[in-house]
Specification:
The structure holds 2 protein chains of 2 kinds. Chain A is mainly alpha-helical. Chain A is about 75% helix and about 5% strand. Chain A has helices at about 5-35, 40-60, 65-85, 95-115, 140-165, 165-175, 175-180, 185-210, 220-235, 240-260, 265-280, and strands at about 130-135, 135-140. In chain A, strands 1-2 form a two-stranded antiparallel ribbon. In chain A, helix 1 packs parallel to helix 5 and helix 1 (about 5-35) packs antiparallel against helix 8. The chains are: A mainly alpha, B alpha/beta.
């Protein structure tokens, strides 16, 4: 097996993994702060993908230009979802939260089916079939831009949490819920803000992903599951862990496809998940409970 | 109720009871309820919708042809085998006299079990896994080639293609979907290719992939690295589109993409999505006969119902689905009964010579399988599936290698 082939496959795995990582980052941020697992995560990304196809079909907007309006809309949607629906469930048992978000996910899938029908939709842009040539490595342009969007979004999110006052307040909520209440932080508002930010990650990932895969309403649950695998591998609640998990899953699937059997790709990501759960239950970059 | 009304009711009931042994009242008053199970959503959705067009036009055409009233009971199995099983159960509970469908071998195997258990005839429109008609079932019938027949005809047509274009490819990389159909085709190729000594090529690598795959980067990288002369492909529709795009991205230009008998590359959606990239792909598949009288009748009804569509894109799917319903209606007309045993026996005696698809008459053997169904080499030309072989049915000459091919 030639080095060029392995290099090509690894590069494609890294780029796809970064987009996966951004999607999972949203899940990790929400869980890390709100302590609610968003079981409608993949479904939300599917909605973002449909939004990009609609904007492309109606206004001719390139999916990367759709990122801004989609991110704004998803921020508002996420904020309202948390403030209006999830906040009342924060103190309820975990199974209630689980059922609530599963119900939201089912409603989303069925609403998409009613509006868009069962057929796959895709976006065709000029650069979608083009690739850069770096020596003997071919880099798919759309995949490269998608990964770039993921890295930039993740960078902005890290900066927000590290340097802004609001970001620090959210981190304080995540680190010590009671302490945050004692010092007078509006925790419920910060939770809603966090859910909004997690939704922004989903929106950006969806706009990028629609260039790589066709979208259908039942796509959501598969991505929800993938996001879980990634955050568990990377460490639930860890932001760098989500990106690392995404890249690891992307590369391991690609290499498994190359060296073992392409149709057994997902078996390896679940194998990796089991291995991590056995050896490092908190995930690669997660903190011990 | 007074005495007079009571007596009248008794008289009517007596007359009905007296006539019923002859089946007069029942047969003439009933419609044939046909449960049509297709994958109208999910990853096989486009093909399921294409098959549905053949089902939708059947009641009107068959009423004119045979005078038989048909009521369609449509069910979508969402490209999911378990759902196919439950949809079949439900259709039978709701009174379907016969089941038709389902395009997919896995689903066909599941529905066949239900049909056999419940004793309801099941006419398969499209599904190729040989084992479906090898189980000794009494209620399962198939008017479609088995995978072995598809491969045999498909490989013969590949030989004809090389001869017609005066080419001698030495190597092929074989890619196939990893589902019931893909595995049946792979088994067939493994059994038949070594015996086809007239075929000059050998398979240098075999790559299977998930039929619901969303990304085929690795698969195509691996196939490209095999450096084979051409791609031998057993695909479905969505994966065929993803694969063709990925070939362009990875700048892989083999001599051609040739399917020895699978759906995907002649479907309308393949052309719509890929545009010029769909050109020159080749599918050796069971096909319809454009010159047949029944094709012209069906085409008229098809265009009336789908004025924006062309039969070329749906001929195979709609044609075999229509014929499956025709088989049921023809049997019902002869049997004059919806009794499942009588109907199944009548289907077994089918002999339809006026048909739409290529090949001999529709006659079922003791296993419930029609033999002698023909195939054609269909190449995508000017954004239409075009018959290029056999020469007797061809409307254009085959092009192989594809334009743009450069030997590495």
């Amino acid at each position: 097996m030639s080095f060029d082939l392995v290099a090509n496959v690894v590069v494609a795995g890294v780029l796809t993994g970064l987009v996966y990582g951004l999607m999972a980052l949203g899940l990790s941020v929400i869980f890390g702060v709100v302590r609610v697992v968003n079981f409608a995560h993949g479904e939300m990304m599917t909605i973002a993908m449909y939004a990009a196809t609609v904007l492309f079909a109606s206004l001719g907007l390139d999916p990367f230009l759709c990122i801004l309006p989609a991110a704004l809309a998803f921020f508002v949607f996420g904020y309202l979802l948390q403030a209006g629906l999830i906040n009342p469930f924060i103190t309820r048992p975990e199974h209630s939260q689980f059922m609530l978000l599963v119900a939201v996910a089912i409603i989303m899938v069925n609403a998409l089916l009613m509006v868009f029908g069962p057929s796959a939709r895709s976006i065709q842009v000029d650069y979608q079939l083009e690739s850069f040539e770096l020596g003997k490595v071919l880099v798919d342009k759309a995949r490269f831009f998608a990964a770039l969007a993921a890295v930039v979004t993740a960078g902005l999110l890290f900066s927000f949490f590290k340097f802004s006052l609001m970001g620090k307040a959210i981190r304080a909520c995540a680190d010590n819920h009671l302490g945050a209440l004692v010092v007078g932080l509006d925790v419920k508002k910060l939770y809603a803000l966090t859910f909004g930010l997690g939704s922004v990650c989903v929106a950006v990932a969806g706009c990028a992903m629609v260039l790589l895969v066709d979208v259908t309403p039942p796509l959501g649950p598969a991505y929800t599951l993938l996001a879980f695998v990634i955050v568990i591998v990377g460490g639930l609640g860890s932001m760098p862990g989500a990106l690392l998990g995404g890249v690891l899953i992307g590369v391991s699937e690609a290499l498994a496809g190359l060296f073992v059997a392409p149709s057994a790709k997902s078996m390896f990501s679940f194998g990796l998940l089991i291995l991590i759960l056995l050896l490092r239950p908190q995930g690669l970059l997660g903190k011990k409970a | 109720m007074d005495r007079r009304t009571f007596s009248r009711n008794i008289a009517v009931a007596g007359a009905a009871a007296a006539l019923s042994p002859f089946g007069i009242v029942r047969a003439q008053a009933q419609k044939l309820k046909v449960g049509v199970i297709l994958p109208r959503s999910g990853y096989l959705g486009f093909i399921g919708q294409s098959c549905q067009k053949g089902a939708d036009l059947a009641p009107g055409v068959i009423k004119e042809m045979l005078g038989v009233d048909i009521e369609l009971m449509n069910a979508d199995f969402e490209s999911n085998v378990d759902t196919a099983r439950t949809r079949a159960e439900r259709l039978i509970q709701e009174g379907a006299n016969v089941l038709v469908g389902p395009f997919d071998s896995g689903a066909a195997a599941a529905i066949a079990q239900v049909a056999e258990q419940r004793g309801v005839p099941f006419v398969i429109n499209i599904a190729a896994a040989p084992q479906i008609t090898e189980q000794g079932y009494k209620y399962v019938f198939r008017n479609f080639q088995t995978a072995i027949d598809i491969v045999r005809n498909g490989l013969d047509l590949i030989g004809d293609l090389f001869q017609a274009t005066n080419t001698v490819p030495r190597t092929a990389v074989y890619m196939h979907v990893n589902d019931t159909f893909g595995q049946a085709m792979t088994k067939g190729i493994g059994a038949l290719l070594p015996r086809r000594t007239q075929l000059p090529f050998k398979i240098v690598d075999t790559i299977s992939y998930d039929p619901a795959a969303k990304d085929l980067t690795v698969e195509v990288s691996k196939a490209k690295a095999a450096n084979a002369d051409f791609l031998l492909l057993v695909c479905r529709l969505n994966d065929a589109i993803i694969l063709r795009r990925e070939m362009v991205k990875q700048r892989w230009n083999p001599m051609g993409i040739v399917s020895p008998g699978s759906p995907g590359m002649y479907e309308e959606q393949y052309f719509k999505t890929l545009g010029k990239l769909s050109e020159y792909s080749i599918s050796n598949v069971p096909w319809y006969n454009p010159a047949a009288k029944l094709t012209r009748i069906v085409e008229k009804a098809f265009l009336k119902q789908n004025p924006k569509d062309r039969l070329e894109f749906h001929g195979l799917n709609a044609g075999f689905t229509f014929e499956a319903i025709l088989v049921a209606a023809d049997a019902y007309k002869r049997a004059r009964s919806t009794d499942p045993k009588v109907l199944a026996e009548a289907i077994r005696q089918t002999n339809i010579t006026e048909k739409m698809t290529l090949g001999g008459p529709i006659k079922f053997n003791e296993k419930g399988q029609v033999e002698g169904i023909g195939s054609a080499c269909v190449q995508n030309r000017n954004l239409l599936p075009t018959v290029v072989l056999p020469a007797s049915a061809a409307t254009a000459k085959p092009v192989f290698p594809m334009p743009g091919y450069k030997k590495a």
